[in-house]
Amino acid sequence: MVTAPPLPAKRRKSASWTQDPEGVRRDILAVARAEFVENGLSGARVDEIAAKTSNSKRMIYYYFGDKEGLYRAVLEEAYARIRTFERSLDLAALPPREAIATLTGFTFDYHADNPDFVRLVMVENIHHGRHLASSTKISVLNLSAIDMIREVYERGLADGLFREGLDPIDIHLTISALSFYNVSNQASIRQVFGHDMAAPEARERRRRSAIETVLRMVCR
């Protein structure tokens, strides 16, 4: 299970930014993440974030410029985190079929264990992805995910295991869609069908199905 770190306890103002500026920055980002997840960009309030971190609005603006800069930093941290864990899988060391299955299972679990990430992506889609577009850091991070799939796919082609003519972006989108929907639509599926997608047995069943679906997509 790979989950985001818990929110920090309130810090005393006395030992804050002069002694541990990176720690203060991390605390602000953690609290801001929770506020943006709960209230979206429009509904989140810097006053509330400042109160929960025992920092002033002025200090938050010093680090992040404005509310949108803070929100962009939260997005960057969220994408950096999932990309870091993906790299730790060391897919290049695995046979192609096992690498694709491992990546799919990891992605499914990461989304299920980190619903805040899903909510942030949903919030950003409401804003038509404009903050993602303005972040060079996120663009580079996400291109690395496609490069990782491309390397595995090309090895699978060379070994005669994978079908020709697939685009790595389509493989990535299929993995993401199967993982994202299982979290983003939990409430509506529960209400419409009375089915709890988060129940352990249901989650495990969907996880197996996601891996099988992606393998059928790429394998001969």
UniProtKB/TrEMBL annotation:
Domain annotation HTH tetR-type: ranges: 22-82
Record GO terms (molecular function): DNA binding
Gene source species: Bosea vaviloviae
Protein's name in the database: TetR family transcriptional regulator
Gene3D superfamilies: Tetracycline Repressor, domain 2 (1.10.357.10)
DNA-binding region positions on the chain: 45-64
Keyword Protease set for record: no
InterPro entries: Homeodomain-like_sf (IPR009057), HTH-type_TetR-like_transc_reg (IPR050109), HTH_TetR (IPR001647), NicS_C (IPR041474), Tet_transcr_reg_TetR-rel_C_sf (IPR036271)
UniProt keyword annotation of Protein biosynthesis present: no
Keywords: DNA-binding
Domain of life: Bacteria
